[in-house]
Design a protein that fits this description.
CATH class of the largest domain: Alpha Beta
Radius of gyration: 23 Å
CATH architecture of the largest domain: 3-Layer(aba) Sandwich
Number of domains: 3
CATH topology of the largest domain: D-Maltodextrin-Binding Protein, domain 2
Number of helices: 12
Length: 303
């Protein structure tokens, strides 16, 4: 039994299933399943019971998890002590970010960082769920929040604004017919869910999405109106912003990591590089756009 086997075991235990563990590690389901069977055969015990919807630890599995977590903690402490020793930043750097930013506005920045630091292997993990930095499921998290966890350290690098958007053709049709647009049901996160409930008085169309990329696609199809981050809505020529945005809809964009990595050269250089690059996108993220009155100066539209 080696640490790599235990790392897979912990991922499955925390993910609640073989597929959950495979997603956390970015591995094939079949590979993780085969490795877990091999580990059980080596130990001569069953570590998981199959239950509806996933896998549950057996008594032996719970005992192994205690030992594995102790080993993990010691390894993380050692990594924190010596993580800053490299003269030139190198090695694997795992970064988690929400999908609407990772596959859009952040990807050119990731690409530029990778070219600037070829010795660092940048692994981007798209997740709208909590990924544990304490357990080193990722090294760095780029997250939208106004209340980052106190257990993490980091830097607020930008403010991200949101506004109401609808498809241009859809809104023109509603105006021509003298009808009010309907609200999409949005369940992508607590922020958008609560904001939508407040402005729509709880009345939504019979169409619900759980991701902002799906929201944008639904708006393009004329299914209603919804709240979107301005960096998404303003960049889509098929969408129209309705009015301005509200200060209470602003979220901080944070680069976060575990305190044990505060001396890691690759983490620190990533934070500084991305912080500066994101700062150059301040107007786009904050919802600034050229004055429609014609003077071309950036203005901040508020409702």
């Amino acid at each position: 039994m080696n640490w790599d086997d235990l790392r897979l075991f912990l991922a499955v235990a925390r993910g609640g299933s073989i597929s959950g563990g495979a997603r956390r590690l970015g591995m094939q389901h079949s590979t993780v399943s085969r490795r877990m069977r091999r580990l059980e055969a080596e130990l001569g015990v069953r570590l998981f019971d199959k239950v509806p919807g996933g896998h549950e630890l057996t008594g032996a599995g719970r005992g192994l998890m205690v030992s594995a977590e102790n080993m993990e903690r010691e390894l993380l402490e050692a990594d924190g002590l010596f993580g800053g020793a490299e003269a030139r930043p190198s090695g694997l750097l795992r970064v988690t970010a929400v999908d609407n930013m990772a596959c859009g506005i952040l990807m050119p920045l990731f690409a530029a960082f990778s070219r600037a630091y070829p010795e660092i292997t940048l692994q981007i993990m798209v997740s709208n769920e909590d990924v544990s930095l304490a357990r080193r499921e990722a090294d760095v998290a780029i997250r939208l929040t106004n209340e980052p966890p106190e257990t993490l350290v980091g830097k607020r690098v930008a403010t991200v604004a949101s506004a109401v958007y609808g498809g241009t053709d859809y809104l023109q049709a509603m105006r021509a017919q003298g009808r009010a647009p309907v609200w999409l049901g949005v369940d992508c996160c607590s922020f958008h869910r609560n904001w939508t409930r407040e402005v729509s008085d709880g009345e939504t169309a019979g169409f619900v999405v759980d991701d902002t990329l799906l929201t944008r696609a639904a708006l393009r199809e004329g299914l209603g109106i919804a709240i979107l981050p301005c960096f998404m809505g303003d960049a889509d020529a098929a969408l129209e912003r309705l009015g301005g945005f509200r200060p209470e809809w602003e979220l901080g964009l944070w680069i976060l990591f575990h305190p044990d990595l505060r001396r890691s050269a690759r983490v620190l250089v990533f934070r500084e590089y991305m912080g500066q690059a994101i700062a150059e996108l301040e107007d786009v993220l904050a919802g600034h756009r050229p004055d429609e009155a014609g003077d071309g100066s950036p203005v901040r539209h508020r409702g």
